Amino acid sequence: MSKALDGVKILDFTHVQSGPTCTQLLAWFGADVIKVERPGIGDATREQLQDIPDVDSLYFTMLNHNKRSITLDTKTPTGIEVMWRLVKECDVLVENFAPGALDRMGLTWEAIQAANPRMILASVKGFGPGAYEDCKVYENVAQCVGGAASTTGFRTGLPMVSGAQIGDSGTGLHLALGIVTALFHRTHSGLGQRVDCAMQDSVLNLCRVKLRDQQRLERGPLREYSQFGEGIPFGDSVPRAGNDSGGGQPGRILKCKGWETDPNAYLYFITQGPVWAKICDVIGEPTWKTHPDYATPKARLPHLNEIFTRIEAWTMSKTKFEAMEVLNELHIPCGPILSMKEIAEDEALRASGTLVEVDHPTRGPYLTVGNPIKLSASPCEVTRSPLLGEHTAEILRDVLGYSDGECAAIARSGATGAVPGLAAE
Ligand code: COA
After folding, report:
1. If you measure from the C-alpha of residue 350 to the centroid of ligand 1, how many angstroms do you get, rounded to a whole number?
2. I want to staple 146 with a disulfide (CB 3.0 to 4.6 A). Which of 129, 167, 181, 204 is the partner?
């Protein structure tokens, strides 16, 4: 069976997390992803957070599956010459260097277009055009400037960043969509184009409901926020709402049996309107079905604390999985708070290919997240990340058509660093 992106060549000039998550997705869909790395150093994440000395870190291996690696110093004359050959050969150049870095290497959009008019140039930067366009940005900065941190956490606590990497991986996802859209456009325009994703913009896109609430706030209090029921006045910007559900169906994280010792013995419980009668029966409050303070979603809003305290008395009598079983039967939306340990052991996630065990020559087997996007006609096989420069020789020969003598000259110039078997020929 062929892969959806078979035949597409991606020149992967990305590092750290945001760019690599994008190119990894494209590789999973079948693109040939050629990762260009600095000789001897490679992507900085290879040696960040290493759990085994001198072995590529999980940080790197889990972001760079299904790719090939070529080492190339693009600041040497031979290195940049080879890079230009790759630009002419590939369909997409993806990069997430600091603003201006690509231009400083001579890889300007104008020059790229002139060399390969079909080339798509896809970039991640921290900010779009404006006062901060030259800034370097990492994940948590993006969460702060994109509106996530000011709206996450508890009202009385500090702004909070999320464990979900919405700034890095979130932007990578946005960029991947931009790239396939530009590839589709190229099928009828015949031309490449630029795809730019700013991390601030991507986080804001994911926080769109909070901008919705900002505008609702101008017309009155946000009645579904807990603080409304607590009688605490709103300020002029969207407050942090703890674990209140972001939608129109109030929800909370509630304690379950064992919460005193298990930090994850909790359940997310949603008081969805259509199943309110079933909720009342389950928690033993049948009179709440018709009581004027509880019968309708609107009437319930000022009483959410009281309602959830009562529901919690019920959830505390069950483990999170027992509660989930009872509630699911009744179609009451809920979900246990799963620890990473529980997720790592989840058989269904393994069976679906969302969790995959991969073997690595220097690390051995490790667990990773596979492709969360399933295409029925383009199944995804997750293969290990490349060692630094592992495919240098084959890319020079097979992709760029250099002769053995030319390869040896390239290696002798120092452009690729030490590549076994290359300089000797
Ligand atoms: N050969 C030669 N030089 C190379 C090279 C290669 N193969 N690959 C990278 N370099 C050079 C770059 O050209 C740059 O040189 P310059 O500054 O002299 O122009 C240098 O390496 C470092 O690049 P830079 O991007 O500045 O790295 P950094 O480690 O200082 O910053 C980030 C890292 C992530 C903060 C920065 O790249 C950034 O802001 N990127 C955009 C936003 C982003 O993606 N952030 C999220 C990362 S998960």
Report:
1. 35
2. 204
Q: Dump pLDDT digits (tens) for 237-269.
A: 999 999 998 677 899 999 999 999 999 999 999
Q: Which of 44, 201, 237 is nearest to 129 (CA)?
A: 201
307: exposed, middle or buried (Cβ count in 10 Å: 0-12, 13-18, 19+): buried
pLDDT, tens only, 169-218:
999 999 999 999 999 999 999 999 999 999 999 999 999 999 999 999 99
205 CA to centre of ligand 1 in angstroms: 25
Q: Looking at ligand 1, which residue's alpha carbon is closest to its atom 26?
A: 98
Angle at 340 between CA 174 and CA 261, to 5 degrees: 140
Residue nearest to ligand 1 atom 8, measured at CA: 38
**Which atom of ligand 1 is nearest the CA belonging to 14?**
44
Please list every protein residue whose CB sits less than 6 Å from any atom of ligand 1: 16-19, 36-38, 72-75, 96-98, 101, 104-105, 124-126, 136-138, 168
Give tens-digit pLDDT for 207-241. 999 999 999 999 999 998 989 989 999 999 999 99
User: C-alpha angle 85/91/93, rounded to 5°?
Assistant: 75
Q: At 204, which helix (H) or strand (E)?
A: helix 199-206
Mutational test site, ligand 1, from 97, 103, 107, max ligand atoms within 8 Å of CB: 97
Tokens 């079933």 correspond to: 278
